[in-house]
Amino acid sequence: MSPQTAVQISNLTFSHIPPGGRPDDSIVALRDVTFDLPTGSRTLLIGGNGAGKSTLLYILAGKRMIQQGEVKVFGKDVFKDFPPNLVYLGTEWAMNAGVRRDIVVSDFLNSVGGYRHKERRDRLLDILDIDLDWHLHAISDGERRRVQLCMGLMGEWDLLLLDEVTVDLDVLVRDGLLKFLKEETTNRGATVVYATHIFDGLNDFPTHVAHMNDGSFALNPTPDRALRIQEEKDGKRPKTRGPRTLLPADIDRESFYKKYDYSH
After folding, report:
1. Fewer CB within 10 Å, N side or C side of the chain?
2. Which InterPro entries match (predicted)?
3. Average pLDDT over the chain, rounded to an integer
4. What's the rounded Cα separation, in Å, for the pair 36 and 76?
């Protein structure tokens, strides 16, 4: 591996068992994924819902144990020798009950080391338009998301994994954040992998774009829905979405709801 390589993934295949399922019900989320990313790169990870973007970021963050393949960040196995200065920011944080309590933002940031990164923290407070007197339980989801970003970015991270965390931000705040991230990659050689569905203002942001489809990278991407529909027509996969032929159990349920339908 080159010392300039930030991320290296080789032959990664990953399956998971749905809630309440059995081992035989496992679903393949990633299929033989292989790629390298250089330090200082800014990669957009794009693709439809269920394409495997979040799963890939979870694995890179060391949050999932892989069954097949190899995942290294700065030459270290993310499971056996977790690399320092890796930051993962996902959507679930803002929904956590622990960060919806009556905590003043200034106290919260200091409790996670804000006093050690005062210069960077203060710059992010300005970029993200955060009021230190906010109470976490009394602010909006978008404002809480800004606090999360400040918390995650105020230290000098080397690899940043973003999973749809800018969806709640207004246009000006998001623009300021993207400029900050671009500066970090240019001036410090930090690396960003950013999964998003929102492409406004991203024209000059990425150095790499990776399109995921059905757990794999697509070199000549076809829109996920169009590809799935074509594969259903060709008999390559069962049709599971949209209307379906009613089975006896479905008919029984429909009869029940008709009997107790009070919407008229």
Report:
1. C
2. AAA+_ATPase, ABC_transporter-like_ATP-bd, P-loop_NTPase
3. 85
4. 14
